[in-house]
Design brief:
alpha/beta, Rossmann fold, 9 helices, 7 strands
Length: about 230
């Protein structure tokens, strides 16, 4: 299945406003819809994301686009020290975590250089205005030896699975979201995959800002992807 066109999708400041408004609207039932539309696979994906960091106990991990705090809770359970940041007030208000929470733009983080041990980010890469400045910001805040783990959707490499996933993600997910939450938001989310660059280009962008050991791992037959890297 070819990626949907980006022609009808917002860009620049319009995208920032649209994304903030959308996540404010879906925050109250965000976790419920996630569990239903992924058949709870998102729970195991987040556990793998946290495990892939390989950081020492009490390491400070910034969870960007933290949403309602799923990754923050998992990071705390793993003995790490999470800080959640999100551009959506609605998501922060609906968060269920004891971690410190900050309202912030991921492209302009209120964090000193080299002060963070690790970064996680779940299902948000396609919602940023631009990825290269985001990766540059990660390189700025992560200390030498620190790690990043970025989780997002993907398309299965198998043609048959890709076709089936395309129907489910493009047709069924919007219906589920429309019934339980905000219909327009869940029509946007499948289309937003078009924002993601080709996998190898995205990995090159991470290498270009100075990360090493850049790896991409497909999860659950390829319907999600986990990208990890180390700050040398």
């Amino acid at each position: 299945m070819a990626k949907p066109s980006t022609e009808a999708l917002p860009t620049g400041d319009e995208k920032v406003a649209a994304v903030r408004s959308m996540f404010d609207a879906i925050a109250p039932r965000y976790d419920l819809v996630n569990r239903l539309m992924t058949f709870r696979m998102d729970v195991s994906w987040r556990k793998k994301t946290i495990a892939s960091l390989g950081l020492a106990p009490r390491s400070v991990v910034l969870d960007l686009a933290c949403g309602t705090g799923d990754l923050c809770r998992g990071l705390a359970d793993a003995g790490l020290s999470p800080i959640g940041m999100d551009i959506s007030y609605g998501m922060l208000a609906a968060a269920r975590t004891s971690a410190p929470l900050v309202h912030a733009d991921a492209l302009r983080l209120p964090v000193p250089d080299g002060s963070i041990d690790g970064v996680t980010c779940g299902f948000a890469l396609r919602n940023f205005v631009e990825l290269p400045p985001f990766f540059t910001e990660l390189a700025r805040i992560v200390r030498p030896g620190g790690r990043i783990a970025l989780l997002d959707v993907a398309e299965p490499p198998n043609k048959v699975l890709r076709w089936g996933h395309g129907i489910y993600f493009g047709k069924v997910v919007p219906k589920i979201g429309g019934l339980l939450s905000d219909a327009s938001a869940y029509q946007y989310l499948p289309k937003s995959v078009a924002y993601l660059p080709e996998p190898e280009r995205m990995l090159d962008q991470i290498r270009e800002v100075g990360f090493t050991d850049v790896q991409r791992r497909l999860l659950s037959t390829g319907i999600s992807q986990l990208i990890t890297a180390t700050r040398p």
